[in-house]
Amino acid sequence: MAPETSVAPMTLTTVVASTRPGRVGRSVADWFAARAAEHDQFESHTVDLNELALPFFDEPHPPALQQYTKSHTREWSRIVDGSDAFVFVTPEYNGAFPATLKNAWDYLVVEWQHKPAGFVSYGGVSAGTRAVQMAKQVVANLRMLPIGPTVSIPFVNELVEDGAFRPGKIHEAAAEQMLDELARTARVMRRLRSETY
């Protein structure tokens, strides 16, 4: 009987979509990334689009060619390429997601393919759910797989104390369900990428 080989943990990247002053998105993302770090299937990383500071898409070549000329594009490509799964933490602006998130998606094509995408949304009464529905269409066009389970946080400002997000039991349970689904999906899609490329 052959000895068991250890399977490398998968990299889950949590992306903070909001870049505006006074945002609560970073505190929500910090909570989720900490929950992801406790999951035995993932190594958890966070990318804050405010810190990444991508300008509006400024490459001269279509991203599908991967002929990048800017250092910020090459760095973003490295991060996305090295990730097995993503969670996008997003507010809802006028019924949709922030332009900063669409810009981050538009920089790349190949690096997103065959990777699962989960969403943590927040806001007022709608909890950012309309932003997620629109976002799922975009990531599907990038050949990502948007999973069903999401974390939706209505009236988010009532759950932020001293700059830290204080989740309720319903948020914790939703996060666990989403992480389990991401782990199952990411494992299969990692094998798919190895066979495809």
Walk me through this protein's architecture.
- Helix content is 40%, strand content 18%.
- The chain starts with 9 loop residues before the first strand and ends with a helix.
- The chain is of the alpha/beta class and 197 residues long.
- It has six helices and eight strands, in the order βαβααβαβαββββα.
- The strands form two sheets. Strands 1, 2, 3, 4, 5 and 6 form a six-stranded parallel beta sheet that branches.
Q: How is this structure best summarized?
A:
The protein has 6 helices and 8 strands, in the order βαβααβαβαββββα. With 197 residues, it is α/β, with parallel strands linked by helices.
Largest sheet: 6 strands, parallel
Rg estimate, integer Å: 17 Å
- Poorly predicted tracts of residues: 1-6
Quantity of strands, as a count: 8
Question: Termini separation (Å)?
Answer: 30 Å
How many helices? The count is 6
Work out the helicity level: 25-40%
Shape: globular
H/E element order: EHEHHEHEHEEEEH
- Strand composition percent: 15-25%
By secondary-structure content and strand pairing, the structural class works out as alpha/beta
